[in-house]
Design goal:
Radius of gyration: 14 Å
Strand content: over 45%
Number of strands: 11
Order of helices and strands: EEEEEEEEEEE
Distance between the termini: 40 Å
Largest sheet: 7 strands, mixed
Number of helices: 0
């Protein structure tokens, strides 16, 4: 059993910053990928950034230079530092844990709301 819990969302002015946290617990493999996705109202969920236990990172173009993903493997925690927030960054942010192979297992948190006031 794996649990994924996000925190840190809230209301911020455009241009401001927020830091999201994601803690995973349960049966966590030594190698995995933790990612942040977001879903704006009426839109599909989209990947924002991801980071593997080894440190490899991926960012979608629309957050490069503004968002930073990091993780503390000892604490099974990932973070998303979001700077220079724009109104289009608003939405529900979900944490995702991907681990294992054949089968590969995927776990989601409940999401945390980010609202950006212009």
């Amino acid at each position: 059993q794996v649990q994924v819990m996000e925190s840190g969302g809230g209301l911020v002015q455009a241009g401001g910053s927020l830091r999201l946290s994601c803690v995973v617990s349960g049966v966590i493999r030594k190698t995995n990928v933790m990612g942040w996705y977001r879903q704006a109202h009426g839109k599909q969920r989209e990947l924002v950034a991801s980071m593997a236990t080894g440190g490899d990172t991926f960012y979608e173009d629309f957050v490069k230079g503004r968002f930073t993903i990091s993780r503390d493997n000892a604490k099974n925690t990932a973070y998303l530092q979001m700077n220079s927030l724009k109104s289009e960054d608003a939405g529900v942010y979900y944490c995702n844990l991907l681990q294992g192979s054949a089968p590969r297992n995927e776990y989601w948190g409940q999401g945390t709301q980010v609202t950006v006031a212009s």
